[in-house]
Amino acid sequence: MNRLLVDRVISPDQTLSVMQTAMLAVSCEAGPWDGLWVSEARHDPFLTMGFAAEHTERLSIGTSIAVALSRSPMTMAYTAYDLQRISKGRFILGIGSQVKAHIERRFSMPWSAPTERMCEYIAALRCIWNSWRTGERLHFQGDFYQHTLMPGFFSPPALEHPDPPIYLAAVGPTMTALAGEVADGVILHGFTTATYIAEQTLPALKQGLDQSGRSRGDVAISTMAFVVTGRTESEFAHAAQAVREQIAFYGSTPAYRPVMDAHGWGEAAEELSRMMRQGGHTSADLSAVITDDMLHAFAVVAEPHAVAGQIHERFAGLVDRLSFYTPYQTDDHLWTDIAEDLLTLQSEKAQSDYSSGL
């Protein structure tokens, strides 16, 4: 069994200077972290990755995620190629479709058939990179994108490393199956459970893998895991309430209803949606719908010293990469300690399995 990789995520609401970004990347590389991811929310994700790449040598760096359908495949191809060159082959291009309202009203870009567009988008990226690598004439003709002009003056020199791996964000079974068919990895939404991954996500992924003639090992699964923990009773209570509120927010959204339904919590999801439609309810009001059973299904709930063991028990062998989803402020050292605990635990287990001849 491969080791579960543990990644650090720069929070969407963090505003880091160039020096802070570089220092964080250096700190991650010196610690137990395998990768550093940044999302696209209030800031451009690629600028942050450039500084992280220049100040590290081992750490994987990636976007989780960059919005694809707000950009031309050509624009994305150039940026990802540059970051792959700067990082010497350590960049992971994590992309997602976003939703119709944001694509049309925030980015003023066209929206239609998101799964089909994403399939073609990834094919266009690979066609462009192949042209740069081989010098072959660029000729991509799709239903949504056409790329047929690439003069030598605008063609970057071939990389000394493989093309950037493409991870596709997926919530529902259709996009998950597409990831299995055409991507190098799938990025799962944090609003999921181990049960849902095993019973819904993996079968959908396999459908795509079978379509392309690939196997499970050809696609990495990356997820964010809610964690409720704290060094003091008040910290623990604050973390639990923050996670309950985040679960309630997602649970009220129709797009995430299948996760609730899979656990038999459809009535709770309907109640949350009704409260959101009515308005006038606080986050605390919504969180009251989230029972202890729901909290423990969506989140690892444990004292700091026990978090690593519970994460390993829940996710090892199920996903390949994991980061901590913590919608609350806490001491950064706490998460480094937990990541180190997880690294040690996996090392000890691997040694035990080896000694036992497994």
What is the total tally of β strands? 12
Tell me the domain tally.
Answer: 1
Radius of gyration from CA coordinates: 21 Å
Shape: globular
Q: Could you give the order of strands across the largest sheet?
A: 1-2-3-5-8-9-10-12
> What is the succession of H and E elements?
EHEHEEHEHHEEEHEHEHHHHHEHEH
In the CATH hierarchy, what is the architecture at level 2? Alpha-Beta Barrel
* Beta content: 5-15%
The N- and C-terminal alpha carbons lie at a distance of 10 Å
**Oligomer state of the chains in this structure:** single chain
Structure in words:
The protein is of the alpha/beta class. It has one domain: Luciferase-like domain (TIM Barrel, Alpha-Beta Barrel), CATH 3.20.20.30. The protein contains 14 helices and 12 strands. The strands form 2 sheets. The chain has an 8-stranded parallel β-barrel, surrounded by 7 helices. It has a two-stranded antiparallel sheet with strand order 6-7. Strand 6 (140-141) and strand 7 form a beta hairpin.
